[in-house]
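Worked problem 6 (solution included).
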Amino acid sequence: MDMQSHPNWCTRSACTAYGVEGDINDAFERWHRSEPLLVQTSDPTTGLVVHKFAEADGTDEHIELAAVALPVTRPWYLAEPQQGRTIVLRQEFADVLVQAVVQLA
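Solution. The predicted structure is:
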């Protein structure tokens, strides 16, 4: 992937693959990110954020799931996961998980 190019699913407002203006300490992970899917839970103060991310060169795609406190008052990708945990799945495993969940539903 050429510098400054993005996968077709990458949301530019959340992309930090090529750095973030003013980030002199390189605090942001260098990732392409999709638009998040926010899943409401039975608890109105908690949501599940699901999104795709990949390395700056477009490789190593993963799906991330994280429970976050609502409302999210900062950029969603900076929201701290509740209890400090996320679930990260390689893209091919996420595809299989989706198929399994559909069968269970």
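Discussion: The mean pLDDT is 87.
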